[in-house]
Amino acid sequence: QHYYITNNLSKMSVKTLNNMAPPLDFSFKNLATLTDSLEEEPRKGTKLKDTELQEGYTDIVTAVRYNNNSIHDLGDLVPSITSLVVNPAAISWLDFSFNDINALDDALLQFPNITTLYLHGNQLMSLNEVKRLSGLPGLRTLTLHGNPLEALDGYRQFVLGTLPSLKQLDFSSVTKQDRADAENWKKLCSKKMKMSKKKKAAE
Q1: For the whole model, what pTM was predicted?
Q2: Rounded Cα distance, 81 and 21, in Å
Q3: Which of 12, 73, 110, 201 is 20 to 30 Å from 34 at the Cα level?
Q4: Distance between CA 55 and CA 71 in Å, rounded?
């Protein structure tokens, strides 16, 4: 079964957009998968989508919290969110901090209005995972600290060079110096790559 998220934000009235719901909170629920959230009631008594009547929140849900669980992957993100909320395109903030996620998934790209993404305290090991997030042009706030990749050489420069739209990384504002360092890092890596190719060609 395929799930498609359409962007209906432009059709929302100002009144509707000003009537946002609190975050849909599934933190500390002992979830092993995202689909497990479909069997749980969110914290703070937020009303879930009525699947029979296809009626959901009177308010627009823009944030979902899955932090402090045991989630390993994000492959079922789209069907899970689609089953929970009426307008998934309105989601702008997702919190997956303190789980066991070791790889990101292109499912994240199905939420084009994400501006804030928390991924700290997981098991992400490769900086290549960050490249997947380049498909989220509106992303402004990202956390990755507490993952093994944080210890890799050039971590901050790589992330900012890959995601130049970020305004905040790991709860720290991105400065002009950060951007300059990221640009210099990209140039240095590009130079090293060219030298490596030339060396291989000469062998």
Answers
A1: 0.85
A2: 15
A3: 12
A4: 28
